[in-house]
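I am still getting used to backbone structure tokens and would like to learn alongside you. Label the sequence line and the structure token line clearly, so we can match residues to local backbone shapes. Would you write everything just below, so we can both look at the same thing?
***
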Amino acid sequence: MDIADFYALKTGSAPLGSGAPAKLTVHDLGILRATSGKVGACDPFVNLKYPLVVRVPPGDFPVRVTVADVSEEQDGSHLREAYLSLVLSEADSVTVEAAPGPDGPPPPGHYFTVGVDAGTVAFVDAEAVKHCMPDPETWYEGVFESDDPNSWFSLMDADGPHPAGTANIVMPLASNGENVVLSHSGWGDGFYWLLQTKDAAGNLTGIHVDLAVVGKFDEEPDDGNEPPSNAEPAAEASKKSWVAKLLGR
């Protein structure tokens, strides 16, 4: 994978899969508290309890979303999220590669992927979920979707303080600001690459969910080796689920 074809955290223009240019804009979504160093990437409305975990140094880190203008006129009339990024360092990134899971990297030519079935991706401290969320049986109607303006769907639909379709939410039982940072997932549901970037010294600079909106990737090589069950070649976004439709995606 060539860093020159990787457009997370970039402004300016980048090619869509069709080759057409798309204007990119980066939005700051605030800080993620990652006290445990176990960052979970997931669709929060489906797999918050069992995210794909990546280990990072414990700390608080900025999260940013790179948005692509996919309209033919490039007039801002059709925007799609292209990357959700956890920024670990402001140093220049010189390499991009598959992010490892908790047990190491995937096989060569494969990527761990974030499965999406509700049109949303997020970063969260995976350990914090265990003690900062109520009984999972109450999540959907009590936390995600309710008449409360602080329900997660309502906060994502709001025009501020972050762009509509994104949110930075403190979990209901948090005692120290433990939070989840969410974004709509580009074209919707599917399986999306989890990537990491490094600087010239090999230090980690970021973790990124590539939402398959801009840039191109080589096809997965047929090496005859079966990848782990959660390591798959990235897929095009699949047909929208009913939840995604509910969210207007």
